[in-house]
Amino acid sequence: MHRSSGFTFSRRGLIRTGAGVSLAALGLGAGAQSASAAVGATKRFDLTQPSYDLFRSKNTHGPRVQQSFAFDWVNKFLYVATKRSGSAESAGDLCINKMDFDGNYLSYMHLNGFGHGVAFAALPSGSGTELWIECAANGNGYGTALAPIRYAANTTMGSPAASAAYRPISGATEYTCSVDPVHDRMIVRYHTSAGKRIAVFPLSAFRTRDFGAPLVDFKQPSIPGTPQGYTLYGSYMYFLTGDAYPGDGSPSGDGNSYVTSIDVNTGTVKQGPVLTKAGSTLHHREPEGLAIYRTDAGEARLFIGFATGVEGDRRSSIFYKNALI
After folding, report:
1. How many Å apart are CA 110 and CA 130, to the nearest integer?
2. From CA 41, how far away is CA 142, in angstroms rounded?
3. Tell me, what's the pLDDT at 11?
4. Which helix (H) or strand (E) element contains residue 109?
5. How far is 155 from 179, CA to CA, in rounded Å?
6. Which of 12, 29, 41, 102 is the most buried (most CB within 10 A)?
7. Integer Cα distance of 244 and 166 in angstroms
8. Global confidence as pTM
9. Domains of the chain with CATH codes
10. Measured in Å, how far apart are the chain's first and last C-alpha atoms?
11. Is 325 exposed, middle or buried (0-12, 13-18, 19+ CB in 10 A)?
């Protein structure tokens, strides 16, 4: 389905710090094994409701697929992470594409040796943007720490060492993150010897670089399919899975792109996996990335990204859901 994006902007920031949310020292929810506080209950997106277009088939700096995307909600820019042309999958080389909300490409930044790009955050920083992104890629191309990187157009940066970056969870070996700008929080997905886990921090922990204990911390529930992105809205995590259309990438049935919501207070699935047919007629159509944004009119949106287009000319396509229950 298609509808105009409806973004109307003022220069005011869109964060409502703690709006509708309180932290109570309630102990651990089921499955939340090392948190000191619970995240106050909020509404969630109804994943069965229709999706609408932000944009389709927009060019990025290179020809390879996007991995994820993030909004700078104050300065009104979108950042799309793509794989670097000519780099091996294990190298961890990324291209960050700065775009406007119509999908027009503006500039790029190359990040060498940072990671896979499953998820990252774009935090407003004055008139610029601070990217919180994985860094110090391991031999499999996944980041082993998190780094704040100020976006600098048309430049190349090598990754800092993990020891010079941030590891908010002791003992974790891989990290990614995504921001909830409405409730002023950051979600971190990290890897341990026992598998993937999820932690939620106040966004202030990333701004001050003083992390302390997360609000919740739980084992990621088992969700079928290829992981392709995640994000946080209030007390619910959203998890994207799926693969590109098979064969030559021509539209094939309904595909296998699913979105699942997870209650972060219990660590259990709330809704899904729910099949999404957003952009179902697009070529290739590989699910790649989730993000949250709230318009100036106050409408919260869950955005779903896809890498689309033909081999050697992959494009970015992004859609959203807006029905809260």
Report:
1. 15
2. 32
3. 29
4. strand 105-112
5. 24
6. 29
7. 33
8. 0.89
9. 39-157+170-321 (2.115.10)
10. 21
11. exposed
Reported residue count of the chain is 325
pLDDT at 291: 98
**Residue keyed to tokens 């399919």:** 225
Residue 252: its pLDDT value, please?
Answer: 80
Q: Enter the tokens of residue 288.
A: 């790649």
What token pair was written down for 167? 């590891």
Q: Give which of 64, 105, 67, 68 is closest to 85, Cα–Cα.
A: 64
In the DSSP assignment, the letter for residue 139 is T
Task: Reduce the DSSP state of residue 163 to 3 states and report it.
Answer: helix
Q: Residue 53 has which token pair?
A: 């277009």
Cα gap 6→155, rounded to integer Å: 32
With 0-12 / 13-18 / 19 or more C-beta atoms within 10 angstroms meaning exposed / middle / buried, residue 223 is: middle
- CB contact set of 180 (below 8 Å; sequence gap of 6+): 186, 187, 203, 231, 232, 233, 234, 292
| Amino acid 172: pLDDT | 97
Instruction: Determine how β-strand 105-112 pairs with β-strand 155-158.
Output: parallel
Which residues of the chain carry a pLDDT beneath 70? 1-37
Q: What local confidence, expressed as pLDDT, does residue 184 receive?
A: 98
CB-side neighbour CA atoms (13 Å) of 59 = 6
For residues 156 and 167, give the distance between their C-alpha atoms in angstroms, rounded to a whole number.
23
